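Dig into what follows:

_____
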Amino acid sequence: MMTAEPGTLGLTRLTEHHIDVQGASPIKHKMRRMSPPMLQVAHDEVKKMLAEGVIEPSASSWSSAPVIVKKADGSNRFCIDYRDLNKVTKKDAYPVQNIDAILDKLRRARYITTIDLKSAYFQIAMEESSKKYTAFAVPGAGLFQFTRLAFGLTNAPMTFQRLIDALFGPECEPFVFGYLDDIVIVTETFEQHLVWLEKVLERLNSAGLTINRKKVRVLPVERQVPRVRARRRWPARRQGQGRTGDELPGAHRLEELTTFS
């Protein structure tokens, strides 16, 4: 089974992220002061990303500023301020999923599974010539650049959609689609659902992608989506609570549907 343990990020070669700055001069942000606690957060994140192969030391003439933002649960998120880089980046016209089309699929579905890719963007390679544009500096640590698709880049959603379309072509419509960084499976029957669940997991494995098992929601009883309340027919332990990938009964456990290396 694919896991989401530290150091087990997948890496697919189905697509890469390209940045075209249209001949713009290098952008170099001034290094921002950080309080000692926030600086420690930044250093810890740099160490983690280096260990996972997400970033590497850089000699780039570009440098965007890191920022630490508070998440809703009070924890910290390490981000890079790519707004100036995004201004000079040529925009990608590749189409992403239309919300109305997604809602139509949800209306027809009786069974839904959402599969969370472990740090989805970090499983997509950054094109070699584009890495230098993603560089960022951390006081006391140095200058680094992303080897994987960085969050906050203007064309990141389009690159992710390219990956989804390469994985699940027209033959998977209307049963499988991507939304944000999730993969969604929708079917009218339970038998269909098991078939498509296995197909999706097999394709993810073949593409070298890993999933976060704890965030896989299998056949939730009820899901709130914009303008739609879709009721699902699955006996959850409590009303409104879905099941995770580790909670499927009997032969329907994810690891019994397919085995991953």
